[in-house]
Design goal:
About 20% of the residues lie in helices and about 15% in strands. The longest helix has 8 residues. Strand 3 and strand 4 form a beta hairpin. About 20% of the residues are buried. The chain is of the alpha+beta class and about 110 residues long.
Length: about 110
């Protein structure tokens, strides 16, 4: 797969916003699908989503290292680690975030 496609269109990080919603960020730390050098203000674009049932246990299972980062009020999790090639796993974590997290089925891939 073309690295540019992966860097722009695949989720790399899940970042919580001040209002409790989440933004899926790509490798460039922009919302998934954004490919620009401009600073992106999330509130100016429809990029945040509300994910019910995304508590600490699920976030830890989604994170490649099992860690929730941030200061508690604004958390983020890294979905894969570029250095160890965990991004090359066959089942993308996006499926777990969007399709299965509500069922509590998110776990190590």
């Amino acid at each position: 797969m073309n690295e540019k496609v992966r860097a722009v269109n695949f989720p790399y990080c899940l970042e919580q916003q001040d209002d409790g919603s989440w933004v899926l960020l790509n490798r460039n730390y922009e919302p998934v699908g954004f490919n620009t050098d401009d600073f992106i203000r999330y509130e100016e674009h429809p990029v945040s989503i509300r994910l019910r049932g995304l508590g600490p246990a699920t976030l830890k299972r989604l994170a490649f290292d099992g860690e929730i980062n941030g200061d508690g009020a604004k958390s983020y999790v890294m979905l894969y680690n570029v250095k160890d090639k965990s991004c090359e796993r066959s089942e993308p974590r996006l499926v777990l975030v969007v399709g299965r997290a509500r069922q509590g089925v998110a776990g190590p891939l």
